[in-house]
Amino acid sequence: MSFEQDTERFDLWIKNHFSIVSRKFRIADLRDHSQGRGLIATEDIKKDETLFEFSRDHIINVDSATLGQLQNRSNKEILISLNQWEALILCLAYELMLAEKSRWWDYLRILPQTIDKFSTPMFWKDEDLGFLKPSCVTDRLGKQEAEKTYFKLVPEYCIKLGVPELAKFLTINQFHAVASLIMSYSFDVDHAEEVSEGEEERGENHADVQDDVQDDVQDDVQDDPQTDLQTDLQADLQADLQTDLGAESIKFDTYLKSMVPLADTLNANTTLVNATLHYDQEQLVMKAIKDIKKDEQIYNTYGDLPNSEILRKYGYIELPSSAAEFADIPRTVLVDFYKQKYTKTFPTIKNVHHLVDILIQQIAESDYLEETLDDSDDGIVLERYEVYANGELIPEFILLLLILSTLFESFRTDSKWFRKLCRHMDKFEGEFQIFVNRVIAKCYQLLEERSIVTDAFIDDLKQIVQSRLDQYPEKIVSSECILPKDFSLQLSNKQIADVVLSNEVRCLQDILDGKFPPNEDGSEEPKFEVISNQKFLKNVLKRKREDDEKRSERKNRRVQRS
Ligand SMILES: C[S@@+](CC[C@H](N)C(=O)[O-])C[C@H]1O[C@@H](n2cnc3c(N)ncnc32)[C@H](O)[C@@H]1O
């Protein structure tokens, strides 16, 4: 069947099954724009108008899928012992294997079902992946983790579920295709009982909620506000690396990863978004969130994602940039920076590299931070830190850097004292640990209670950002590279990678251009005041100074007595 015929059958299926389908849009062929299908307004649409509405039983998940109903419905018990990704992969693969016997076939047939239909870096050649370096996105592809999941499920779970024929259907390539399909099309839909009666939730669509099986089958739930985004994304990206495949079972989740017909036909744009999915206990509803003019495309949002993540999950990029670009600073860059700085400043002190490791460890294990930070699950020592455009940094990075820069500057005031401290750096609750803990507490108070950082912090920040920038190709940093104007599937992977890297470089350069501290949202007021490091050190070193004075008084008295 042709592309057009598939669209027509799907359109008919929608009209037969959905309770409301507005006449004011059509499913359009946007292949000329490299966007596959999408929805286009055929008349003006007003903000808050319903575009379509349907009941929960039309979506595909563990509750509704054919696989769960088999073996007297006992399959559902087996499926909910798996994690969201594993369960939906098996359910969706089974529907695809059923083909026309599946009640969703008219929907399924318009979806990409083979790996050649995906343009995500997961399927790029190693040589092309090299174009994305040094972006951390290459660490998040998770191909190996996906393969681990494959060998967990196939054939063992196909047999357990009483469908050994699924093991034949689900070759490794078919598995990658189903997983990629879920990554770029699924929604996480809250259980009906999670939505209070009469209340309507804002549906979390694709990237808001969907993660990729390739990178660990993790859960990726983001809320929209930019403020939450940064911490949420951070947590998600950490989860990408940390989640143990299959470690979490659906049983304890309040949502189900689901395939949602028609809602997933909307393309996305971080700035042009004009519709979102909402749901109540019974229905899912796609609503306009802005006035939409006739002939305009109806766009959803896949979350506030930078181009690196849009590419990784969905296989396209936004030009010139997404509304939520960020670059990553790996922790190793920060640690190497301080190791070099200590070595240069204290050339005669042995073990300064070990000292930096100890400092990082002590900050990671700080009881004070664990008790004080609101969302302290991962603490402030993370694998990597996002640097957003216009000088926005995540709070964990600011605090860690303030502590490390303050410690360094404190040690620099008195190298004799520092040398002595170093002798005790491994000692539990020794002088060294007590001082580090004091600095952690003082920095936390300065930052969290008074929104203040120091000029030493700014200097270190700029140097660390410069070290990270030095890892990017010269042509990208110097903006010599000519970037494409529009996204097209004809773009080479090198051109796409250049856009990703250029956007990351731009975020880093914003820091060098003095955009930190950024202003408070909607105000001219900077988010942080910058004070002189000397002023802050007076406070931090007050106790040391008092101890020094007492010691010197005692010494003087001894001298006078003798
Ligand atoms: C949820 S689907 C949207 C429907 C899809 N266009 C289709 O034909 O089935 C997500 C996929 O649509 C494509 N897509 C979505 N938004 C896009 C955009 N702004 N530009 C290019 N492709 C886009 C990408 O291939 C992405 O993986």
TrEMBL record:
The SET domain, residue ranges: 23-303
Basic residues biased stretches: 553-562
Single GO MF annotation: protein-lysine N-methyltransferase activity
Pfam families (alphabetical): SET (PF00856)
Signal peptide span: none
Annotated segments matching region Disordered: 543-562
PANTHER family for the chain: N-LYSINE METHYLTRANSFERASE SETD6, UNCHARACTERIZED PUTATIVE METHYLTRANSFERASE
Protein name stated in the entry: SET domain-containing protein
